[in-house]
Design a protein that fits this description.
This protein has about 60 residues and is mainly alpha-helical. The chain contains three helices and no strands. The longest helix is centred in the C-terminal third of the chain and has 34 residues.
């Protein structure tokens, strides 16, 4: 869907950018693994910073 909606490469999602590292002719698994690890870092940092609020929100939503 990102290929249809976005025409600019700067607006593409991270997953679409990661697919540019894969090729049939030259598989670059090491580069793809490194790029995947780098793309995961912001998500992990956000989760670590907001973990208390996430757990509190889940607990508040579970109570009626």
């Amino acid at each position: 869907m990102a290929l249809v909606v976005f025409h600019d490469n700067k607006l593409m999602p991270v997953q679409r950018g990661l697919t540019s590292f894969s090729s049939v002719d030259t598989p670059q698994q090491q580069i793809m693994l490194a790029a995947t690890a780098i793309s995961i870092v912001p998500v992990v940092v956000f989760h670590l910073l907001a973990q208390r609020h996430i757990v509190r929100g889940i607990g508040a939503g579970a109570l009626k």
